[in-house]
Amino acid sequence: MLLALILIPLITAALVPLASRRHVRWVALLGTLAPVGLVITLLAQYDWTNPPSQTLAMSADWYPDLGVNLRLNIDGLSFALVALTALLGPICVIGSFTAIKERVRTYYGWLLVLQAAMTGVFLARDAILFYVFFEFTLVPMYVLISLFGSTNRKAAATKFFLYTFTGSIIALAGIVYVAWWNATQPGGFGAWTFEFNSLIAASQKMPLETQQWVFLALLCGFAVKVPLFPLHTWLPLAHTEAPTAGSVILAGVLLKLGTYAILVIAIPFAPQAAITFAPLIATLSLIGIVAIGLVCWVQTDVKKLVAYSSVSHLGFCMLGMFAFNHAGLQGSILYMINHGLSTGALFLMIGMMYERYHTRSMHEVGGLAAKMPIWATFMVFFSMSSVGLPGLNGFISEFLCVMGAFTAGDNWSAGRAATAGSLGPTYAVIAGTGMIIAAIYILYLVGKVCFGPLREPAGHGHHGHGHGHDAHGDDHLPADLTAREIGILVPLAVLCVALGFYPKPLMQVVEPTVRDTARLIQDTRAKMPEYDLSPMPRVTPKAASAPEARP
Amino acid sequence: MIEKIHALWPEITLFAAACVVMVVGLSRNVQVRRLCVPVCFIALVAAGVLAWFTTPMSAAAMAHLPQYGKTLAAFVGALLLLLLVGTPDREYEDDVARGRAAFEPIRGTRGEFYAFYLFSITGLMLCAGADDLIWLFLALELTSLPTYIMVAISTGRNRSMEAGVKYFFLGALGAATFLFGFALIYGATGSTKYTAIAEALQAQYQAGPLNAIAVAGVVLAVLGIGFKIAAVPMHFYTADVYQGASAPVSAMLAFVPKAAGFFALLGLLSCVGWFRATEPNTSLPEPIHEVLWFMAVLTMTVGNVLAVMQNSVKRILAYSSIAHSGYMLVGLIAGPGLQKDSFTHNGLAAVLFYLLVYGVSNIGAFAVLACLERRGRDGQMEEADDIADLRGLCSRRPLLGWIMVISSLGLLGLPPLLGFWGKMPLFTAGVSSGDYLLVVILGLNSAIAAFYYLRLVGVTLLEAPDAPGRGVPVQPGPFPTRVLAGVASVAGIIMLSFIPLTNQAQRAGIYNRDPIIKRSAEPAQPAVPKPEV
After folding, report:
1. Where are the domains of chain B?
2. pLDDT at position B79 over 60
3. By the number of CB atoms within 10 A of the CB, which of A227, A401, A445, B508 ranks highest?
């Protein structure tokens, strides 16, 4: 079952070159719809609040001498992220029907490979297998950006590849070190394994300084992907230059690989180091939230604005994660899903606009509500979801992240809501400013593009308008959205509303991961005298966050 | 001497075949001369089978090294032969086909080219089985001398002559250096036999620090052998020679002398031993360790950084082959580790496995170059070399294009391709030996390598095919065997990525110095040098 989730897109990708140019998109659609079917089957078959631990697991030898194993398993968190990946698959394929006219086989083939690799990352339970998938996402993304992107695509693709590749090799060194540590522990001498649980168990005994090195090495690889503040410079370029589907996947899933990896690898492999580095990472996240938020404000390229906003948004995700309390972790995971939905949708919207006007500059287009009312409605809707309007999905996750940071203070008060942690209200307040900035730039974007006097690029609507894009078939796109385009936006919109009003099922699904991570950190803290906060009344995490869980 | 014969059947087979090829190559009949290639191929396969059954050298520290090394040499050698077929005749045939030269049955199909190739592989096998410094020296020279000639005759151009001469003189310098080193080792230990050297050095360890003459000898020998593996500072010839020679010959230069050099280093360093007298750490003795460490770092970095700057694909591959040597040196520095039969701790096994990985992956990239031909300004046929020649290859020639893409990504070490599985053991061995700085440098270098391999992939896979570099568009040459070599290489890359052959490398990499310690604990050998005959 799990293997099928990875293999179906991969096999379809192998079949794509055989299909005719006209049918290839339907083949691709089938290849992405099948995993959705599988996800729905999984959803119906199992109770994901208490996921089956072993029934779906599989393992097979790969490189036994290196201790590398094909080990797949699924838990609530993986399930949520796999579902997100599967959902975005067909949306990306359908969204590319009119945008991609040339080299369609190459395009859909690599899109399917990308789909398989991303699913693999979430299912892998062997660190090297994880790394293999993690790295293998680079090639399809590189091809997609450099073949189907806009003007500056070559540089963007190369920068994306080199940045991530460099980081992940250092992360590999970290993983190998932990495996070596595991092998040299009494009882495990000589036997190398990269299985997550054994590595996590062994790494708890690592001394603090070693853990810090391991953590930094892992962070090198994963923080680039997130991206954490000083390492984010590849992202705006890659996002802006990528084709629409590429941006959707980049924002929707690829960035989540980074946060997911930090949550399930970096933190459990080096929990003591994670605790000591928490203030640093939270600070970097805050810089990202505020500074990049301000950067968004001055953008005139619509796509670049949304791209930068991802950096700012993922800052919330990291902040919540490094609060290490129940609310923060819960919020962080919810943020991964919600950001995938709303930012993915925003990129789709911008892609639809671009297909019609061939520009992304706010100077050239504006007041589109007059001409494209449906588009404008969706645009406003997803902007609000992205900015965190209460009632939509963005709100609950952002709120939980900030609350997690707020209550994770150890030096403020011994209030009932306080949980152990090294962040505090200051962090929460700064993050709050970030929320205001987010509101400013998103409203600014919506105001410019959707409302006000109608502005269209010169020459638009005439035959042979001097863009040289005549071959792209934009002529037969109607002014407003087609049924196909509405069809791909509606599921996203429905999910945004559903998760905004009733996030409880999702929260329950990821609950085990949240609980385990919070407990791991608590136990670790108990072993670190300078970080142990036992004199403080420690409330159970559940009591601390449950009331706020429902808006 | 006679008792060694039973271990030498693969070499004897190849040598005999080389002599046969020499004679057959002189026949007046073209059909007979064409037999050279099948004879070579059969000989290599037979030698590979015989090598598989080589008895292990139980007295040596690495008992299974000869078996692995010889089998590897025969296996990769057979792949290389597919690539080498017809190399020196190509220009003449082209001239005949275009009416620029009269057809003379006596020219063409040069038997000596194949004979030299077999001699070189024989030398490589002898290196793997060497147990004596004199033997090692002769084996290294037998590997190299034929390659000088092969470079020079691989094309009719002056550039090949120049490359051959350059390669010869610098090769002679390298040989002189390691021969001097061998002489010093002999002076310090009183023997040229590996086992005797190991015992003498072990005795010196126990008495105190190593004899300075022995250390100087090993350092000089390592530097000299650095020429064979194209390690900094003996790497200067690499790019010019690879570019001057025909692509198949460059592919051979990237593997055969390099493998010979690593077998020699393994033999030599296993005499010195990976242990420090005082610490429980496994590492080479101080100055030797430092020399190798800096060599490895410089080799990796210089190779990769210079490769980034090139525009000629052959030069890119040449500099990257320097970098790959640097990666393998990391395995030598890490040493065998404390665990006898663990693949992950053993840097020597990692080196041996990497040789297989590199040998298989490298052929693909060179095969594509060898398959693509272009007319130079003088109207003569030449191989594709400029990176622009590869533009849009995946659309023009999907097979060749994909061979290039997969072998580039394989050489880069992108998981899950073979190169990654080659680098993994180097990583694990480096981490096990505790040299984290070196592992990080290795990692960063792999990242630099991404830059130029990605460029190769990008040009081949992504660029539009309608923009040929300059002059006449690059055409595929008429050699099905070269395409076959490329296909075999890619098949090997993909197959070995999923069917690990690490067992053999692991067994070959087992380094056992207990017998040496035991023997050296017995009454010491007479320290007076006694020349052996």
Report:
1. 2-521
2. yes
3. A401
Chain B residue with the nearest C-alpha to that of A189:
B339
Pick B359 or B103 by higher pLDDT.
Answer: B359
A66·B345 Cβ contact <8 A: no
For residue B428, give the chain A residue with the closest CA: A176
With 90 as the cut, is the pLDDT of residue B532 above it? no
Count CA atoms closer than 13 A to A189's CA, side-chain side: 7
Residue of B nearest to A179 (CA): B428
Of A66, A157, A190, nearest to B425 by CB-CB distance is A66
Contact B360/A at CB under 8 A: no
Classify burial at B328, counting beta carbons within 10 Å of its beta carbon; exposed 0-12, middle 13-18, buried 19 or more.
Answer: buried
> Of the candidates A64, A166, A190, which has its C-beta nearest B447's C-beta?
A166
Is B414 an interface residue toward A (CB < 8 Å)? yes
**Pairwise CB contact (< 8 Å): A65 & B409:** no
CB pairs under 8 A between A and B: 97
Pick the residue from chain A with its C-alpha nearest to B498: A62
pLDDT on residue B138: 94
In the predicted model, is pLDDT for residue B115 greater than 80? yes
| Cα–Cα dist A85/B281, whole Å | 48
| Cβ separation B444–A67 shorter than 8 A | no
8 A C-beta contact, residue A341 and residue A488: no
The reported pLDDT for the residue numbered A547 is: 45
Lowest mean pLDDT among B95-104, B262-271, B398-407: B95-104
Query: The tokens 């077998």 sit on which residue?
Result: B263
Q: Which of A132, A157, A179 sits opposite B415 (nearest CB)?
A: A132
pLDDT band at B272 (very low <50, low <70, confident <90, very high): confident
**Rounded Cα distance, A89 and A38, in Å:** 13
- ipTM score here? 0.86
CA–CA distances in Å: residue B29 to residues B25, B42, B479, B498: 9, 21, 22, 46
Contacts of B97 by beta carbon, 8 Å cutoff, 6+ apart: none
Q: Where do the domains of chain A lie? A: 2-456+477-549
Residues of chain A with pLDDT under 70: 187-190, 410-421, 459-476, 529-551
pLDDT confidence of residue A481 = 80
In sign, the C-alpha dihedral spanning A316, A321, A322, A328 is: positive
Cβ distance of B443 and A173 shorter than 8 Å: yes
Q: Which helix (H) or strand (E) holds B74?
A: helix B65-84
B424/A contact by beta carbon, under 8 A:
yes
In chain A, what residues touch B409 (CB-CB under 8 Å)? Answer: 139
* Residue environment code for B228-241, b if the CB has 16+ CB neighbours within 10 A, otherwise e: bbbbbebbebbbbb
Give B512's contacts (C-beta < 8 A, 6+ positions apart). Answer: B61, B62, B63, B340
User: Shortest CB distance from A180 goes to which of B414, B432, B446?
Assistant: B432
**Which residues are CB-neighbours of A70 under 8 A, at least 6 positions away?**
A58, A59, A60, A61, A62, A126, A129
Maximum Cα–Cα distance across chain A: 76
Q: Is the pLDDT of residue B201 over 80?
A: yes
Residue B184 has a pLDDT of 93
- What burial class does residue A463 get, using C-beta atoms within 10 Å of its C-beta: 0-12 exposed, 13-18 middle, 19+ buried? exposed
Flag whether residue A135 sits within 8 Å of chain B, measured between CB atoms: yes
Q: What are the pLDDT digits (tens) for B442-478? A: 989 998 998 899 889 988 888 777 655 444 566 666 7
pLDDT of residue A529: 67
Any A CB within 8 A of B420 CB: yes
The Cα–Cα gap between B74 and B10 comes to 9
A14 in B contact zone (CB under 8 Å): no
Find, in chain B, the residue whose alpha carbon is nearest to that of A145: B462
Q: How many whole angstroms separate alpha carbon B142 and alpha carbon A162?
A: 42
**How many Å separate Cα B16 from the centre of its chain?**
23
